[in-house]
Q: What sequence folds into this?
């Protein structure tokens, strides 16, 4: 997870730009060439297969003053590369640039990849890099044979270190901020964790939400809580990528059967980032596993960044199995939740540094301005902490300056109706004059309605005000447009994607 501290440091460096919603960030002139040469050498040394598994999606994030950051899409990749290849990459880079002082692997902002799948075949896995004191975790199967008859928390912790990826101990139900946008999913998650057998009526439980809205947090909280209540329970939390990697390596090492046997033993299977599950044979294995678990009344929980029906890379039978349970969505936190998240972060930071204080009005301001995901709030908060260490008196204006790149649609200072009109008109290839005119041909009505809809959801302007800005129209016309586009985009995937693209273009312009 990319912390705000890193963003803070980067912001202080010259010729480094963080562009919101953009994966790739430019560095100094020769950095891209150096990166390319390092990639070529990695490929030559490791072979194409290993290279594309681990480095296929690596990008140059920034390069300045002896610091190079390479970004990868998932925390697991970062962790794996850090522990296995960091030295090699650093050496290779130093050969290219002896001035290199430090090379870091970061997880890149997921804003743009919200709805995308990996461009390359499965990078082995994502997860879980942080330290943990979770009672038992997974990321791999827990075999009954390997598990003592009555495991205690300590046994479980031991298993965890043997069996792999620990849970993040920060991800608990207590630290999960609940509110209207995630209330139902949260309640379902609690039920699964507290009484898995009672929850079998929604099996599998499928949770979907856009990036950074707490899926991993919620899923790991389920695992942690289930294990806390019953250390004997065999719980497996893993990402789809990790699942793929486990199978791929098991097949390579001729022990796929053992792995399957181990997986059969589990009581609660939790799969994160389902959108990354790819490959026919792996999906076949996955489907088989899910069927077996569901048929034997074991609980399965799955999360993805979109509804199951939209997981196009999944085989129809996998999708259909996911449809068989309950599907719940979590959406963006509201103002009250954002404020509580920030207050919670402050309280945890204070555990380490009691002198730490951020005035309530500053927290409120940030909660109002950073209207994105929990991850963005976390980044904003870390950035604030970092800045405060050398600018103790941060004014609201200065905070706006520092966090401006995180301000979202809805921030009155950032999105202007004029920008929306210009971008929408360009997208649909009509002129702005036509957009504001009274012409009622279909090719113009649709862009006009889209622009009105976006003006409503991306700015705080009232319906009458939007009407005025669209050639003096009545507010009921705007309301009609908003409802129409909402209705159409619910049924029309292409339009929904168009809207998302436009939102991104507009936010990036703002
Ligand atoms: N409702 C919430 N309460 C507390 N923290 C939250 C909440 N939602 C998100 N966060 C925090 O935001 C950060 C990102 O959340 P998380 O990694 O769970 O998101 P995600 O939906 O899994 O994202 P991705 O799709 O990128 O994997 C985490 O630090 C998490 O603790």
A:
């Amino acid at each position: 997870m990319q912390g705000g501290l890193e963003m803070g440091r980067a912001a202080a460096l010259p010729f480094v730009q963080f562009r919101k919603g953009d994966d790739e960030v430019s560095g100094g002139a020769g950095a891209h060439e150096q990166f390319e040469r390092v990639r070529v050498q990695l490929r030559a040394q490791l072979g194409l297969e290993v290279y594309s598994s681990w480095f296929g999606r690596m990008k140059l994030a920034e390069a300045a003053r002896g610091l190079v950051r390479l970004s990868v899409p998932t925390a697991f990749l970062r962790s794996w590369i850090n522990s296995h290849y960091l030295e090699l990459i650093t050496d290779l880079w130093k050969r290219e640039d002896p001035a290199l002082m430090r090379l870091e692997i970061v997880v890149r902002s997921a804003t743009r990849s919200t709805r995308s799948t990996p461009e390359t075949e499965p990078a082995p896995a994502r997860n879980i890099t942080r330290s943990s004191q979770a009672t038992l975790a997974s990321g791999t199967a827990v075999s009954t044979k390997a598990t003592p008859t009555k495991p205690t928390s300590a046994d479980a912790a031991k298993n965890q270190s043997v069996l792999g990826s620990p849970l993040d101990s920060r991800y608990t139900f207590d630290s999960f901020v609940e509110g209207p946008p995630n209330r139902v999913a949260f309640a379902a998650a609690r039920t699964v964790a507290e009484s898995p057998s009672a929850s079998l009526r929604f099996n599998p439980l499928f949770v979907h939400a856009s990036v950074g809205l707490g899926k991993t947090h919620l899923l790991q909280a389920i695992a942690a809580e289930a294990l806390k209540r019953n250390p004997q329970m065999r719980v497996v939390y893993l990402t789809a990528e990790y699942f793929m990697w486990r199978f791929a390596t098991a097949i390579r090492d001729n022990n796929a059967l053992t792995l399957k046997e181990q997986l059969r033993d589990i009581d609660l299977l939790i799969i994160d980032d389902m959108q990354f599950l790819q490959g026919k044979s792996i999906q076949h294995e996955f489907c088989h596993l899910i069927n077996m678990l569901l048929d034997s009344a074991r609980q399965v929980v799955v999360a993805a960044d979109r509804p199951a029906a939209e997981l196009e890379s999944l085989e129809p039978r996998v999708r259909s199995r996911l449809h068989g349970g309950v599907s719940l969505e979590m959406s963006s936190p509201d103002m009250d939740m954002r404020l509580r998240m920030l207050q919670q972060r402050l309280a945890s930071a204070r555990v380490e540094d009691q002198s730490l204080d951020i005035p309530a009005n500053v927290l409120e301001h940030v909660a109002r301005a950073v209207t994105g995901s929990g991850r963005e709030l976390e980044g904003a908060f870390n950035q604030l902490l970092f800045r405060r260490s050398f600018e103790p008196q941060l004014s609201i204006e200065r905070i706006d300056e520092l966090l401006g790149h995180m301000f979202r649609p809805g921030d009155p200072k950032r999105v202007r109706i004029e920008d929306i009109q210009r971008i929408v008109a360009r997208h649909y290839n009509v002129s702005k004059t036509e957009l504001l005119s009274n012409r009622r041909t279909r090719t113009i009505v649709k862009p006009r309605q889209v622009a009105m809809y976006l003006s409503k959801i991306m700015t705080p302007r009232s319906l009458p005000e939007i009407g005025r800005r669209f050639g003096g129209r009545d507010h009921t016309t705007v309301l009609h447009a908003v409802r129409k586009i909402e209705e159409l985009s619910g049924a029309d995937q292409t339009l929904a994607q168009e809207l998302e693209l436009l939102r991104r273009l507009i936010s990036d312009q703002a």
User: Anything to note?
Assistant: Residues 110, 175-177, 182, 209, 211-217, 273, 305, 341, 374-375, 378 surround adenosine-5'-triphosphate (CB under 6 Å). The two ends are 25 Å apart (CA to CA). Strands lie at 59-64, 67-72, 102-107, 205-208, 235-239, 268-272, 299-304, 326-329. The chain has four domains: 4-109, 153-329, 335-406, 417-509.
